[in-house]
Amino acid sequence: MADVHIYFGSQSGTAESFSEELQEEAEKYGIKAEVRDLQTFTPEGFAANNIVILVVATYGDGEPTDNAVAFHRWVSNPKNDGALKGQRFTVMGLGDMNYSRFNNMGQLTDTHLERMGGTRIYKRGVGDDSQDIVSDFEKWREGGLWENLKKAVAEVKKEGRCVSLGESRPNSAALEKPLGSAVMSIVRSSAELPAEPDSEPSEVAARFYFEAEKCTVAKVRELRQHRSLEEGLSTMEVELEASGALQKYTAGGTLAMLPRNAESDVSAMLKLLGYSESDLNKKVTFKAAEGAGFKIKKPFPSPCTLRDALYLYCDLARAPTKKLLSALQDKLDAPAKEFVGKLLSDADALKALQSDAVCCRMHEFWALLGVTGGLDPVAFLLNCPRQRAREFTIASSPLMAPKRISLCVSLTARETESLESMAEKLITAGAMPPTATAAAREARPRFLGMCSRYISADLKEGDCVLAKYHSSSLALPSKDVPIVMVGAGAGVAPFRGFWDELRKGPQVAPAVLFFGCRNPAQDWLYKDEMSAAVKLGGGCAALARMQVGPKRPLASLFTAFSRPGEGKEKSYVQDAIKKQGESVKAWVQNMGGYVFICGSTAMGNGVLQALGEVLEGGPEAVDMLKSEGRIVAEMWG
Ligand SMILES: Cc1cc2nc3c(=O)[nH]c(=O)nc-3n(C[C@H](O)[C@H](O)[C@H](O)COP(=O)(O)O)c2cc1C
After folding, report:
1. Residue 63 CA: which ligand 1 atom is closest?
2. 335: cis peptide before it, omega within 30°?
């Protein structure tokens, strides 16, 4: 039995990979650790552990990740008080400071474990994904975790747990063989494939592929008046046919969608793996290396084509991870093998390679290393970082469009940093050949976001994508109270769904929209629809009565343009809020209204600050309204 059990609650894989790092590092300290997915948690199995580390992320609005729901229910239940008597624990929580319930799960897990009788052996860690979550995790690990764990392990060995636990069985997940024991087949036709044994997803990130719905793209259109991919200017509306569980979607909810790698990344990777374009239709499957008889863990749904494996399930837009390098190292020729060995033993060099600012792509790394082919395809496909689904706020309402979900997606684009300084660091560390400097000087194309690039440049009507729906805190209240919506750019997405819902509903209290963009002639998204949703005559009752045609649900529209053109004064949505300060105060504080904010973090924080200036009670009033769920902000970037 392991000395320490590391459980993770993870949605997109960060908590899972941090747990794996802890397991690996524990070995250096002579501690036997084992990682477990909270999905496989059973009360008896969990309670039987002497020392546990919980690495848990927070999702939704302060909620557990999908794989931690059952665990969270169990630890929250006061009936289970005392069930963990004598267990030693520590918690690392992952979250994002932009959410009002920052790190809620880390905090609650820590409190519940103590309430249930556990003993905290080391302080709770707090990771903030809006800043540098990797450094937060490192600081927590290095601030005394290992000393305290060693002490706890020695105590347990000497004194035992000191509590009778009754009958307890280890978690069945621990008995399964690891993924490393799988082998891959790649053949021309499905008929040649060996039978696949029963299997399940290997990692949290891979679970999405098995659970998501396949949906057809019904429509793709540019929403900006001026589009230029070269300048990184594009905002697309995507309409997806809502299949299966997606038909239960709500306005303001979240849709996670899986992107595809760019063709150039796949072509370069095919060569490195010893394949060519003509192999893309070959079928790939996995089976256990030691023969049938136990379940294997699948990296992605198979049998599938090599095309899907490379385009959909592998993330080729990032540098290799430690896991992938370790898996490939043995089959590399010298000197690449030695360079990779050096890289694996040097945390700073690895960090430089994986820096978000540089964004070194998978094939760029191998080119700098001087490797042009011969990578082991089985090790690559099993261990390559998985492609993550990207989340978007839904821009439609099921009341108006029950079978179609719209998304509004702006292209993420920025100048790419050169690879040169990263290559120099790795050369100095002995983890790259000196020839890398010249190769690293070559110009690189502009950095484009993985999913927004795919949508802007590649997605077509009739394509099929994998998508999954999640509810969110952006939802209209059931009461008839004022609604203040504030969105800039693609941040208008949920409000398009909202004005459609308001059009169908009985709302009498005013609903107003503050909308911001750069230039009204170039990027005013949904301009016609938005204008057609606003009451005529600035809300004048007499004019409203005269109105014909569909209901106009918005009492007012306030616009702000940050680059309005020569001679015109620029303004931002926060300026418009301040200008309408008295009305905003009356809607929110006198009439019990709600404020919804959606868009970039900079814009959202500016709006929150402006609200702090116009509302009675200042920033404290804003905090109070946030905690009551009457100011809801969804921010990104
Ligand atoms: C849709 C969504 C909702 C989130 N909600 C919260 C939240 O309420 N509180 C919080 O602190 N962090 C929240 N986060 C941030 C995640 O907890 C954070 O990014 C974490 O590192 C993810 O870990 P994982 O990759 O293991 O799932 C949210 C992230 C997403 C994408």
Report:
1. 8
2. yes
Rounded to the nearest angstrom, the distance between the alpha carbon of 62 and the centre of ligand 1 is: 8
The phi, psi pair for 321, rounded to 5°, reads: -90, 170
Ligand 1 atom with least separation from CA of 55: 26
| Residues 511 and 477: beta-carbon distance below 8 Å | no
Backbone angles phi, psi at 633, to 5 degrees: -120, 130
Torsion of CA 467, 469, 473, 475, to 10 degrees: 110
Beta carbons within 10 angstroms of residue 32's beta carbon: 12
Residue 59 Cβ contacting ligand 1 at under 6 Å? yes
436 in a structural domain: yes
Q: Encoding tokens for residue 128?
A: 């903030």
The pTM assigned to this predicted structure is: 0.85
* Residue 475 is assigned to a structural domain of this protein: no
Q: Is the CB of 580 under 6 A from ligand 1?
A: no
Other beta carbons less than 10 A from residue 196's beta carbon: 16
pLDDT above 60: residue 95: yes
DSSP string, 207-230: HHHHHSEEEEEEEEEE-SSS-BTT
Give the bridge partners for 57, in sequence order.
94
58 alpha carbon to ligand 1 midpoint, in Å?
A: 5
- Domain boundaries, position 45: 4-175
Specify whether 336 is located in the same domain as 391.
yes
| Cα-based torsion angle of the residue sequence 394, 399, 400, 403 in order, rounded to the nearest 10 degrees | 70
252 lines ligand 1 (CB under 6 A): no
Per-residue pLDDT at 463 exceeds 60: yes
Q: What number of CA atoms fall less than 13 Å from residue 265's CA on the CB side?
A: 20
Q: What is the ipTM of this complex?
A: 0.97
633 three-class SS: strand
d(C-alpha 6, C-alpha 64), whole Å: 17
Q: How many independent structural domains does the chain possess?
A: 3
- CATH number, domain with residue 81: 3.40.50.360
Give the residue-averaged pLDDT of 321-344: 95
Residue 471 has phi, psi (to 5 degrees) of: -75, 165
| Coil/strand/helix, residue 125 | strand
Answer whether residue 470 is part of any domain: no
C-alpha 530/C-alpha 520 separation (Å) is 13
Q: Please indicate whether residue 92, judged by its CB atom, sits closer than 6 Å to ligand 1.
A: no
| Residue 469 lies inside a defined structural domain of this protein | no
In the reported structure, the alpha carbon of residue 388 is separated from the centroid of ligand 1 by a whole-number distance in angstroms of 14
